[in-house]
Amino acid sequence: MNKAAIILAAGAGTRMKSALPKVLHKIAGLPMLGHVVAALRGAGVERIVVVTAPSGQPVRDYAHQLGCQSAVQEQQLGTGHAAASAAAALADFSGLLLVVNGDMPLVSAAVIEDVIAAQSRTGLALLACNFADPAHYGRVLRTPDGYLDRIVEYKDANAEERRITLCNGGCYAADARSFFRWAGALRNDNAQKEYYLTDVPGLAKTEGTQCSLAFADEVAVMGVNSRAELADAENKMQTRLRNAAMTAGVTLTAPETVFFSHDTKLENDVEVEPFVVFAPGVTVRAGARIRSHCHLEGAEVAGGAIIGPFARLRPGTSIGEGAHIGNFVEVKNSRIDKGAKANHLTYLGDANIGAGANIGAGTITCNYDGFTKARTEIGAGAFIGSDTALVAPVKVGPGAITAAGSVITADVSPDALAIARGTQSEKRGWAAAFRARKKSERK
Ligand code: UD1
Ligand code: MG
Protein backbone atom coordinates (compact mmCIF):
# COMPACT_ATOMS: atom_id res chain seq x y z
CA MET A 1 0.00 0.00 0.00
CA ASN A 2 1.08 3.62 -0.60
CA LYS A 3 2.40 5.17 2.58
CA ALA A 4 2.66 8.85 3.45
CA ALA A 5 3.45 10.63 6.69
CA ILE A 6 2.87 13.97 8.33
CA ILE A 7 5.51 15.15 10.76
CA LEU A 8 4.29 17.78 13.22
CA ALA A 9 6.96 20.43 13.64
CA ALA A 10 5.13 23.75 13.92
CA GLY A 11 4.97 23.96 17.71
CA ALA A 12 6.53 27.00 19.32
CA GLY A 13 8.91 24.81 21.31
CA THR A 14 8.65 27.42 24.07
CA ARG A 15 10.16 25.18 26.71
CA MET A 16 13.44 24.98 24.74
CA LYS A 17 13.95 28.78 25.12
CA SER A 18 15.79 28.81 21.80
CA ALA A 19 16.05 30.89 18.62
CA LEU A 20 16.53 27.58 16.78
CA PRO A 21 13.27 25.69 16.00
CA LYS A 22 12.96 22.70 18.34
CA VAL A 23 13.15 19.97 15.68
CA LEU A 24 16.47 21.37 14.38
CA HIS A 25 18.21 20.75 17.69
CA LYS A 26 20.62 17.88 17.15
CA ILE A 27 20.85 14.42 18.65
CA ALA A 28 24.05 12.53 17.77
CA GLY A 29 24.90 15.26 15.27
CA LEU A 30 21.61 15.06 13.32
CA PRO A 31 18.59 17.36 13.78
CA MET A 32 15.70 15.60 15.54
CA LEU A 33 13.63 15.96 12.37
CA GLY A 34 16.29 13.98 10.47
CA HIS A 35 15.96 11.08 12.90
CA VAL A 36 12.17 10.96 12.51
CA VAL A 37 12.45 11.11 8.69
CA ALA A 38 15.04 8.27 8.75
CA ALA A 39 12.73 6.06 10.87
CA LEU A 40 9.80 6.67 8.49
CA ARG A 41 11.91 5.99 5.40
CA GLY A 42 13.19 2.82 7.05
CA ALA A 43 9.57 1.66 7.39
CA GLY A 44 8.92 2.24 3.67
CA VAL A 45 7.22 5.65 3.84
CA GLU A 46 8.02 7.45 0.59
CA ARG A 47 6.09 10.67 0.88
CA ILE A 48 6.53 12.93 3.92
CA VAL A 49 5.01 16.33 4.66
CA VAL A 50 6.59 18.39 7.43
CA VAL A 51 4.19 20.86 9.06
CA THR A 52 5.94 24.08 10.05
CA ALA A 53 5.14 27.43 11.62
CA PRO A 54 5.12 30.51 9.31
CA SER A 55 8.47 31.47 10.86
CA GLY A 56 9.83 27.97 10.26
CA GLN A 57 11.75 28.63 7.03
CA PRO A 58 14.87 26.87 8.38
CA VAL A 59 12.72 23.79 9.10
CA ARG A 60 11.22 23.92 5.58
CA ASP A 61 14.70 24.27 4.06
CA TYR A 62 15.94 21.24 6.00
CA ALA A 63 12.79 19.23 5.13
CA HIS A 64 13.30 19.93 1.41
CA GLN A 65 16.96 18.98 1.74
CA LEU A 66 15.75 15.60 3.05
CA GLY A 67 13.41 15.19 0.07
CA CYS A 68 10.23 15.97 2.08
CA GLN A 69 7.36 18.34 1.26
CA SER A 70 6.38 21.07 3.68
CA ALA A 71 3.16 22.72 4.78
CA VAL A 72 2.55 25.82 6.89
CA GLN A 73 0.28 25.86 9.94
CA GLU A 74 -0.66 29.55 9.99
CA GLN A 75 -1.43 29.64 13.73
CA GLN A 76 -0.30 27.17 16.39
CA LEU A 77 -3.75 25.96 17.41
CA GLY A 78 -2.75 22.47 18.48
CA THR A 79 -1.52 19.11 17.17
CA GLY A 80 -4.85 18.20 15.50
CA HIS A 81 -4.96 21.54 13.70
CA ALA A 82 -1.32 21.01 12.64
CA ALA A 83 -2.08 17.62 11.08
CA ALA A 84 -5.09 19.08 9.25
CA SER A 85 -2.78 21.78 7.81
CA ALA A 86 -1.12 19.08 5.68
CA ALA A 87 -4.40 18.14 3.95
CA ALA A 88 -3.80 20.30 0.86
CA ALA A 89 -0.28 18.94 0.38
CA LEU A 90 -1.69 15.40 0.40
CA ALA A 91 -4.92 16.14 -1.55
CA ASP A 92 -3.85 13.73 -4.32
CA PHE A 93 -2.77 10.97 -1.92
CA SER A 94 -4.74 7.88 -1.07
CA GLY A 95 -3.34 5.10 1.08
CA LEU A 96 -1.99 4.72 4.60
CA LEU A 97 -1.15 7.88 6.53
CA LEU A 98 1.11 8.12 9.55
CA VAL A 99 1.10 11.18 11.77
CA VAL A 100 4.20 11.56 13.92
CA ASN A 101 5.33 14.19 16.40
CA GLY A 102 8.54 15.83 15.18
CA ASP A 103 10.03 15.87 18.67
CA MET A 104 10.57 12.13 19.18
CA PRO A 105 14.09 11.50 17.80
CA LEU A 106 14.48 8.00 19.25
CA VAL A 107 11.64 6.49 17.24
CA SER A 108 12.82 3.66 14.97
CA ALA A 109 11.62 2.02 11.76
CA ALA A 110 10.63 -1.08 13.75
CA VAL A 111 8.32 1.00 15.97
CA ILE A 112 6.68 2.63 12.92
CA GLU A 113 6.16 -0.84 11.42
CA ASP A 114 4.41 -1.96 14.62
CA VAL A 115 2.01 0.99 14.35
CA ILE A 116 1.30 0.10 10.71
CA ALA A 117 0.58 -3.52 11.72
CA ALA A 118 -1.79 -2.37 14.50
CA GLN A 119 -3.63 -0.11 12.02
CA SER A 120 -4.34 -3.05 9.72
CA ARG A 121 -6.38 -4.68 12.51
CA THR A 122 -9.02 -1.94 12.94
CA GLY A 123 -8.32 0.94 10.55
CA LEU A 124 -6.75 3.26 13.16
CA ALA A 125 -3.79 2.85 15.50
CA LEU A 126 -1.97 4.77 18.20
CA LEU A 127 1.49 4.20 19.62
CA ALA A 128 1.37 3.79 23.39
CA CYS A 129 3.97 3.28 26.06
CA ASN A 130 4.12 2.47 29.75
CA PHE A 131 6.30 5.01 31.52
CA ALA A 132 7.97 4.52 34.90
CA ASP A 133 7.48 8.28 35.32
CA PRO A 134 4.74 9.39 32.91
CA ALA A 135 5.34 13.10 33.67
CA HIS A 136 3.27 15.31 31.32
CA TYR A 137 2.45 12.80 28.60
CA GLY A 138 -1.19 12.32 27.57
CA ARG A 139 -2.73 9.40 29.49
CA VAL A 140 -4.19 6.42 27.58
CA LEU A 141 -7.46 4.87 28.81
CA ARG A 142 -8.45 1.47 27.39
CA THR A 143 -11.74 -0.27 26.70
CA PRO A 144 -12.27 -3.66 28.39
CA ASP A 145 -11.34 -5.39 25.10
CA GLY A 146 -8.00 -3.57 24.88
CA TYR A 147 -8.74 -0.85 22.33
CA LEU A 148 -8.15 2.79 23.00
CA ASP A 149 -11.01 4.34 24.91
CA ARG A 150 -9.66 7.91 24.98
CA ILE A 151 -6.55 10.00 25.61
CA VAL A 152 -6.61 12.56 28.38
CA GLU A 153 -4.01 15.30 28.19
CA TYR A 154 -2.11 15.79 31.44
CA LYS A 155 -3.49 19.31 31.85
CA ASP A 156 -7.06 18.02 31.49
CA ALA A 157 -6.59 14.93 33.65
CA ASN A 158 -7.95 14.48 37.18
CA ALA A 159 -5.84 13.01 39.99
CA GLU A 160 -6.94 9.45 39.27
CA GLU A 161 -6.21 9.74 35.53
CA ARG A 162 -2.78 11.21 36.30
CA ARG A 163 -1.90 7.98 38.10
CA ILE A 164 -2.21 6.06 34.80
CA THR A 165 1.24 5.16 33.41
CA LEU A 166 0.15 4.10 29.88
CA CYS A 167 0.72 7.15 27.69
CA ASN A 168 0.37 8.50 24.18
CA GLY A 169 3.61 7.97 22.25
CA GLY A 170 2.77 10.56 19.57
CA CYS A 171 2.41 8.38 16.45
CA TYR A 172 -0.86 7.51 14.69
CA ALA A 173 -1.80 5.54 11.57
CA ALA A 174 -5.03 5.61 9.55
CA ASP A 175 -6.38 5.59 6.04
CA ALA A 176 -5.55 9.09 4.74
CA ARG A 177 -9.02 10.11 3.56
CA SER A 178 -10.68 8.93 6.83
CA PHE A 179 -8.02 10.69 8.88
CA PHE A 180 -8.56 14.09 7.24
CA ARG A 181 -12.34 13.72 7.68
CA TRP A 182 -11.84 13.11 11.43
CA ALA A 183 -9.19 15.83 11.83
CA GLY A 184 -11.52 18.32 10.13
CA ALA A 185 -14.19 17.68 12.77
CA LEU A 186 -11.99 18.37 15.86
CA ARG A 187 -13.11 20.93 18.48
CA ASN A 188 -11.04 22.93 20.98
CA ASP A 189 -13.15 22.73 24.16
CA ASN A 190 -10.29 21.73 26.52
CA ALA A 191 -7.90 23.22 29.08
CA GLN A 192 -5.50 24.57 26.44
CA LYS A 193 -8.17 25.73 23.91
CA GLU A 194 -6.32 23.68 21.29
CA TYR A 195 -7.39 21.26 18.57
CA TYR A 196 -5.94 18.03 19.97
CA LEU A 197 -4.87 15.24 17.66
CA THR A 198 -5.60 13.01 20.62
CA ASP A 199 -9.35 13.51 20.04
CA VAL A 200 -9.20 11.85 16.60
CA PRO A 201 -9.78 8.32 17.96
CA GLY A 202 -13.01 9.50 19.64
CA LEU A 203 -14.32 10.86 16.33
CA ALA A 204 -13.34 7.61 14.57
CA LYS A 205 -15.31 5.66 17.15
CA THR A 206 -18.51 7.57 16.28
CA GLU A 207 -18.09 6.07 12.77
CA GLY A 208 -17.53 2.62 14.26
CA THR A 209 -13.74 2.54 13.83
CA GLN A 210 -11.86 1.29 16.90
CA CYS A 211 -8.32 2.43 17.61
CA SER A 212 -5.77 -0.36 18.12
CA LEU A 213 -2.69 0.15 20.25
CA ALA A 214 0.91 -0.56 19.32
CA PHE A 215 3.40 -0.60 22.19
CA ALA A 216 6.95 0.68 22.36
CA ASP A 217 9.50 1.04 25.14
CA GLU A 218 9.85 4.44 26.71
CA VAL A 219 13.16 5.21 25.02
CA ALA A 220 11.63 4.98 21.52
CA VAL A 221 8.78 7.39 22.25
CA MET A 222 10.42 9.94 24.49
CA GLY A 223 9.41 13.47 23.51
CA VAL A 224 11.90 16.33 23.71
CA ASN A 225 10.39 19.52 25.07
CA SER A 226 13.21 21.09 27.09
CA ARG A 227 17.02 21.23 27.21
CA ALA A 228 17.03 18.65 29.99
CA GLU A 229 14.99 16.26 27.81
CA LEU A 230 17.33 17.03 24.89
CA ALA A 231 20.29 15.93 27.02
CA ASP A 232 18.38 12.87 28.18
CA ALA A 233 17.53 11.92 24.56
CA GLU A 234 21.19 12.41 23.57
CA ASN A 235 22.26 10.13 26.39
CA LYS A 236 19.77 7.44 25.36
CA MET A 237 20.82 7.71 21.71
CA GLN A 238 24.49 7.39 22.71
CA THR A 239 23.70 4.24 24.69
CA ARG A 240 21.97 2.83 21.61
CA LEU A 241 24.91 3.71 19.32
CA ARG A 242 27.53 2.34 21.76
CA ASN A 243 25.65 -0.93 22.08
CA ALA A 244 25.29 -1.20 18.29
CA ALA A 245 29.05 -0.65 17.86
CA MET A 246 29.94 -3.30 20.44
CA THR A 247 27.45 -5.74 18.88
CA ALA A 248 29.21 -5.14 15.54
CA GLY A 249 32.55 -6.16 17.07
CA VAL A 250 34.07 -2.86 18.19
CA THR A 251 36.01 -2.73 21.47
CA LEU A 252 35.06 0.24 23.65
CA THR A 253 37.15 0.19 26.81
CA ALA A 254 34.87 2.71 28.56
CA PRO A 255 31.74 2.99 26.37
CA GLU A 256 30.17 5.72 28.51
CA THR A 257 33.02 8.10 27.58
CA VAL A 258 32.85 7.62 23.79
CA PHE A 259 30.46 9.84 21.80
CA PHE A 260 29.10 8.86 18.41
CA SER A 261 27.35 10.61 15.55
CA HIS A 262 24.26 9.11 13.92
CA ASP A 263 26.40 8.09 10.91
CA THR A 264 29.64 6.88 12.57
CA LYS A 265 30.88 3.71 10.86
CA LEU A 266 33.28 1.54 12.85
CA GLU A 267 34.21 -1.86 11.43
CA ASN A 268 34.86 -4.91 13.56
CA ASP A 269 38.01 -5.09 15.66
CA VAL A 270 38.32 -1.33 15.80
CA GLU A 271 39.53 -0.42 19.29
CA VAL A 272 38.43 2.84 20.86
CA GLU A 273 40.09 3.96 24.09
CA PRO A 274 38.27 6.22 26.60
CA PHE A 275 37.22 9.82 25.86
CA VAL A 276 36.85 9.88 22.09
CA VAL A 277 34.37 12.00 20.13
CA PHE A 278 33.16 10.99 16.66
CA ALA A 279 31.60 14.04 14.99
CA PRO A 280 29.65 13.37 11.76
CA GLY A 281 31.15 11.66 8.72
CA VAL A 282 33.68 9.24 10.22
CA THR A 283 34.56 5.75 8.95
CA VAL A 284 37.14 3.61 10.74
CA ARG A 285 38.17 0.37 9.04
CA ALA A 286 38.74 -3.01 10.67
CA GLY A 287 41.62 -3.21 13.11
CA ALA A 288 42.38 0.50 13.50
CA ARG A 289 42.98 1.87 16.97
CA ILE A 290 41.71 5.21 18.24
CA ARG A 291 43.54 6.12 21.40
CA SER A 292 42.28 8.35 24.23
CA HIS A 293 41.12 11.96 23.83
CA CYS A 294 40.77 12.11 20.06
CA HIS A 295 38.23 14.16 18.08
CA LEU A 296 37.40 12.92 14.57
CA GLU A 297 35.14 14.53 11.97
CA GLY A 298 34.64 13.84 8.25
CA ALA A 299 37.58 11.43 8.21
CA GLU A 300 38.37 7.91 7.05
CA VAL A 301 40.90 5.78 8.91
CA ALA A 302 42.27 2.59 7.32
CA GLY A 303 43.00 -0.70 9.06
CA GLY A 304 46.01 -0.91 11.33
CA ALA A 305 46.29 2.86 11.69
CA ILE A 306 46.80 4.31 15.16
CA ILE A 307 45.30 7.70 15.99
CA GLY A 308 46.18 9.63 19.14
CA PRO A 309 46.22 9.93 22.05
CA PHE A 310 45.10 13.57 21.78
CA ALA A 311 44.79 13.81 17.99
CA ARG A 312 42.29 15.76 15.91
CA LEU A 313 41.18 14.63 12.45
CA ARG A 314 39.19 17.25 10.55
CA PRO A 315 36.99 16.97 7.44
CA GLY A 316 38.51 15.69 4.20
CA THR A 317 41.14 13.56 5.92
CA SER A 318 42.05 10.05 4.97
CA ILE A 319 44.58 8.07 6.98
CA GLY A 320 46.19 5.12 5.20
CA GLU A 321 46.82 1.61 6.39
CA GLY A 322 49.15 1.38 9.36
CA ALA A 323 49.79 5.14 9.48
CA HIS A 324 50.36 6.79 12.88
CA ILE A 325 48.93 10.14 13.93
CA GLY A 326 50.19 10.91 17.42
CA ASN A 327 49.65 13.33 20.27
CA PHE A 328 48.70 16.93 19.55
CA VAL A 329 48.61 16.37 15.81
CA GLU A 330 45.85 18.03 13.77
CA VAL A 331 45.13 16.84 10.23
CA LYS A 332 42.72 18.66 7.92
CA ASN A 333 41.76 17.90 4.30
CA SER A 334 44.83 15.74 3.85
CA ARG A 335 45.74 12.28 2.62
CA ILE A 336 48.24 10.39 4.74
CA ASP A 337 49.44 7.33 2.84
CA LYS A 338 50.24 3.85 4.08
CA GLY A 339 52.71 3.65 6.95
CA ALA A 340 53.41 7.40 7.15
CA LYS A 341 53.97 8.84 10.63
CA ALA A 342 53.29 12.20 12.25
CA ASN A 343 53.71 11.40 15.90
CA HIS A 344 53.99 14.69 17.77
CA LEU A 345 52.80 18.32 17.79
CA THR A 346 52.08 18.87 14.11
CA TYR A 347 49.57 20.59 11.82
CA LEU A 348 48.99 19.00 8.43
CA GLY A 349 46.44 20.98 6.41
CA ASP A 350 45.69 20.53 2.68
CA ALA A 351 48.56 18.07 2.33
CA ASN A 352 49.41 14.76 0.69
CA ILE A 353 51.88 12.74 2.70
CA GLY A 354 53.44 9.85 0.74
CA ALA A 355 53.77 6.29 1.98
CA GLY A 356 56.26 5.77 4.77
CA ALA A 357 57.11 9.48 5.13
CA ASN A 358 58.15 10.64 8.60
CA ILE A 359 56.92 14.00 9.80
CA GLY A 360 59.02 15.34 12.68
CA ALA A 361 57.69 17.01 15.82
CA GLY A 362 56.57 20.60 15.40
CA THR A 363 56.09 20.41 11.62
CA ILE A 364 53.57 22.92 10.32
CA THR A 365 52.07 23.27 6.85
CA CYS A 366 51.60 27.01 6.26
CA ASN A 367 48.57 26.42 4.04
CA TYR A 368 46.71 29.72 4.36
CA ASP A 369 47.78 33.25 3.50
CA GLY A 370 44.60 34.86 4.76
CA PHE A 371 42.96 34.55 1.32
CA THR A 372 43.55 31.16 -0.27
CA LYS A 373 44.46 27.64 0.82
CA ALA A 374 47.44 25.98 -0.87
CA ARG A 375 48.60 22.37 -0.92
CA THR A 376 51.75 20.72 0.38
CA GLU A 377 52.98 17.49 -1.19
CA ILE A 378 55.45 15.27 0.59
CA GLY A 379 56.77 12.32 -1.43
CA ALA A 380 56.98 8.73 -0.26
CA GLY A 381 59.74 8.04 2.24
CA ALA A 382 60.56 11.71 2.79
CA PHE A 383 61.87 12.77 6.22
CA ILE A 384 60.66 16.12 7.47
CA GLY A 385 62.93 17.34 10.25
CA SER A 386 61.47 18.65 13.49
CA ASP A 387 60.11 22.18 13.46
CA THR A 388 59.93 22.43 9.67
CA ALA A 389 57.57 25.08 8.33
CA LEU A 390 56.31 24.11 4.86
CA VAL A 391 55.14 27.26 3.10
CA ALA A 392 52.54 26.07 0.60
CA PRO A 393 52.22 25.59 -2.27
CA VAL A 394 55.33 23.47 -1.98
CA LYS A 395 56.53 19.95 -2.84
CA VAL A 396 59.12 17.80 -1.11
CA GLY A 397 60.26 15.00 -3.41
CA PRO A 398 60.25 11.31 -2.48
CA GLY A 399 63.12 10.34 -0.19
CA ALA A 400 64.14 13.97 0.47
CA ILE A 401 65.12 15.26 3.92
CA THR A 402 64.45 18.70 5.37
CA ALA A 403 66.77 19.85 8.13
CA ALA A 404 65.24 20.55 11.53
CA GLY A 405 64.07 24.12 11.93
CA SER A 406 63.84 24.79 8.19
CA VAL A 407 61.36 27.14 6.57
CA ILE A 408 60.79 25.44 3.21
CA THR A 409 59.54 27.90 0.59
CA ALA A 410 60.77 26.20 -2.60
CA ASP A 411 60.27 22.66 -3.92
CA VAL A 412 62.81 20.08 -2.74
CA SER A 413 64.20 17.55 -5.27
CA PRO A 414 63.83 13.82 -4.65
CA ASP A 415 66.49 12.43 -2.29
CA ALA A 416 67.97 15.92 -1.63
CA LEU A 417 68.66 17.54 1.76
CA ALA A 418 67.11 20.99 2.11
CA ILE A 419 68.48 23.27 4.84
CA ALA A 420 66.76 26.60 5.32
CA ARG A 421 67.81 28.00 8.67
CA GLY A 422 70.38 30.37 10.15
CA THR A 423 73.92 29.00 10.29
CA GLN A 424 75.27 28.35 13.77
CA SER A 425 78.40 30.22 14.88
CA GLU A 426 80.32 29.89 18.16
CA LYS A 427 82.22 32.39 20.35
CA ARG A 428 84.52 30.40 22.59
CA GLY A 429 84.51 31.43 26.26
CA TRP A 430 81.96 34.17 25.65
CA ALA A 431 79.45 32.94 28.26
CA ALA A 432 82.00 32.71 31.08
CA ALA A 433 83.36 36.19 30.28
CA PHE A 434 79.81 37.57 30.23
CA ARG A 435 79.01 36.16 33.68
CA ALA A 436 82.25 37.50 35.16
CA ARG A 437 81.52 41.01 33.81
CA LYS A 438 77.97 41.03 35.16
CA LYS A 439 79.11 39.89 38.61
CA SER A 440 81.78 42.65 38.87
CA GLU A 441 79.18 45.27 37.87
CA ARG A 442 76.94 44.18 40.78
CA LYS A 443 79.55 45.02 43.47
C1 UD1 B 1 1.86 15.56 22.73
C2 UD1 B 1 0.51 14.84 22.93
C3 UD1 B 1 0.59 13.95 24.16
C4 UD1 B 1 1.72 12.95 23.97
C5 UD1 B 1 3.03 13.66 23.66
C6 UD1 B 1 4.08 12.64 23.23
C7 UD1 B 1 -1.27 16.26 22.02
C8 UD1 B 1 -2.37 17.20 22.32
N1 UD1 B 1 -0.55 15.81 23.06
O1 UD1 B 1 2.10 16.38 23.86
O2 UD1 B 1 -0.65 13.25 24.34
O3 UD1 B 1 1.83 12.15 25.13
O4 UD1 B 1 2.90 14.58 22.57
O5 UD1 B 1 5.34 13.25 23.07
O6 UD1 B 1 -1.12 15.88 20.86
N2 UD1 B 1 2.81 20.96 17.09
C9 UD1 B 1 2.44 21.61 15.93
N3 UD1 B 1 1.50 22.58 15.98
C10 UD1 B 1 0.86 22.92 17.14
C11 UD1 B 1 1.25 22.25 18.34
C12 UD1 B 1 2.22 21.27 18.27
O7 UD1 B 1 2.98 21.32 14.85
O8 UD1 B 1 0.00 23.79 17.10
C13 UD1 B 1 3.87 19.92 17.02
C14 UD1 B 1 5.09 20.22 17.86
O9 UD1 B 1 6.05 20.91 17.07
C15 UD1 B 1 5.58 18.83 18.28
C16 UD1 B 1 4.34 17.98 18.26
O10 UD1 B 1 3.35 18.71 17.52
O11 UD1 B 1 6.52 18.29 17.37
C17 UD1 B 1 3.81 17.70 19.67
O12 UD1 B 1 3.59 18.96 20.30
P1 UD1 B 1 4.08 19.21 21.80
O13 UD1 B 1 3.73 20.60 22.16
O14 UD1 B 1 5.45 18.75 21.98
O15 UD1 B 1 3.04 18.24 22.56
P2 UD1 B 1 3.27 17.50 23.94
O16 UD1 B 1 2.90 18.42 25.03
O17 UD1 B 1 4.59 16.89 23.97
MG1 MG C 1 6.28 17.04 22.83
Q: Based on the coordinates given, report the CATH architecture of the largest domain.
A: Alpha-Beta Complex
Determine Rg (CA atoms, Å): 30 Å
**Proportion in β-strands:** 25-35%
Indicate the overall shape: elongated
CATH homologous superfamily classification of the largest domain:
Spore Coat Polysaccharide Biosynthesis Protein SpsA, Chain A
Provide the low-confidence segments as ranges: none
Task: Determine and state the CATH class of the largest domain.
Answer: Alpha Beta
The class by helix and strand makeup works out as: alpha/beta
| Major β-sheet annotation | 14 strands, parallel
Residues in helices, as a percent range: 10-25%
Q: What is the number of strand segments?
A: 36
Looking at CATH, which topology of the largest domain would you report? Answer: Spore Coat Polysaccharide Biosynthesis Protein SpsA, Chain A
CA-to-CA gap between the ends? 101 Å
Counting structural domains, the number is 2
**Molecules bound to protein:** uridine-diphosphate-N-acetylglucosamine, magnesium ion
Helix tally equals 10
Q: Kindly state the mean pLDDT as a whole number?
A: 97
Protein traits:
2 domains; 14-stranded parallel β-sheet; binds magnesium ion; eight-stranded parallel β-sheet; 443 residues; Spore Coat Polysaccharide Biosynthesis Protein SpsA, Chain A; UDP N-Acetylglucosamine Acyltransferase, domain 1; elongated
Describe the structure.
The structure is a single chain. This protein is α/β, with parallel strands linked by helices and 443 residues long. It folds into two domains: 3-221, Spore Coat Polysaccharide Biosynthesis Protein SpsA, Chain A (Alpha-Beta Complex), CATH 3.90.550; 227-418, UDP N-Acetylglucosamine Acyltransferase, domain 1 (3 Solenoid). Helix content is 22%, strand content 29%. It is built from ten helices and 36 strands. Strands 12, 13, 15, 16, 18, 19, 21, 22, 24, 26, 28, 31, 34 and 36 form a 14-stranded parallel sheet that branches. A hairpin with a 2-residue loop joins strand 2 and strand 3 (30-31). Helix 1 crosses helix 4. It is elongated and about 105 Å long. The mean pLDDT is 97. The structure holds uridine-diphosphate-N-acetylglucosamine (UD1) and magnesium ion. Residues 8-11, 51, 73, 76-79, 81-82, 101-104, 137-138, 151, 153, 167-168, 170, 196-198, 223, 225 line the site of uridine-diphosphate-N-acetylglucosamine (UD1).
